[in-house]
Structures are given as structure tokens and as C-alpha cells.
Amino acid sequence: MATKLESAVKDIIDIFKQYAQKGGNPNTLEIEELKELFRREMKMFCECHPDPACTLTLTHTDIFDKLAEIIMKMDGSKDIDFSEYMTILSALAAGNES
Ligand SMILES: [Ca+2]
Q1: SS3 for 79?
Q2: How many CB atoms lie within 10 A of CB 31?
Q3: Rounded distance from Cα 77 to ligand 1 centre (Å)
Q4: Neighbours of ion ligand 1 (CB under 5 A)
Q5: How far is the CA of 80 from the centre of ligand 1 (A)?
Q6: C-alpha 1 – ligand 1 centre gap (Å)
Q7: Which of 75, 76, 71, 96 is nearest to 86 (CA)?
């Protein structure tokens, strides 16, 4: 039986794959895939409006947008690989320790 941490790591990987496969390169997240992932899977970090067209205009979105922008400038690509995704998640987690 998997431990709580093993299950959490598996979930992080599975969710990345689920969204990365939606379009473009199936091994990376295009920016729209990343935003959809955050809208649907990171609700706690995204104070969405009741509007279903909710945009990431929120508390942590500024951090998220800046990180995504920095990552894209760093490697010049317009998509985010798994290690870059982990960088964003860890930055968000570090900013929400309590
Ligand atoms: Ca993709």
C-alpha cells in the first residue's frame, strides 16, 4: 500500500501527464494547459469568480504568471516541462507554508 507521500507524488505526476496530453507537445504543458490545470486542480490557490470563464487574476496568480514568464524566458520555449512545473509547484508551496 502506497504511503500518503507516495500517493501525493504519483498524483502530481498523473495530473501533469493528464493536462500535458491535451494538445501540442504531449510531454509538456503549453501555457493554456498550465492555466487550465491551475484553474481546475489548484483551486485553493486560485480565488476564482463564480463565472465559469474564471481567469487567473488572483492572489497567487501573480506569482504563477511571473514564474511561468521567467521559465519561458530561461529556455526560450513556450511550454513547460515536468521539472519547470515542479519549480512552479514548489514556489507556490513555499509561499503557502503555515
Ligand atoms: Ca501539451
Answers
A1: strand
A2: 15
A3: 12
A4: 20, 24-25
A5: 9
A6: 31
A7: 71
How many domains does one find in the chain?
Answer: 1
Lowest mean pLDDT among 29-33, 66-70, 80-84: 66-70
Instruction: Look up the CATH number of the domain holding residue 44.
Output: 1.10.238.10
pLDDT at res. 47: 57
The Å distance, Cα 21 to ligand 1 centre, comes to 5
Enclosing domain of residue 28 = 4-94
Q: How confident is the model at residue 58 (pLDDT cuts 50, 70, 90)?
A: very low
Q: What is the pTM of this model?
A: 0.75
CA dist 74 → 17, 63, 67, 71, 84 (Å): 22, 16, 10, 5, 10
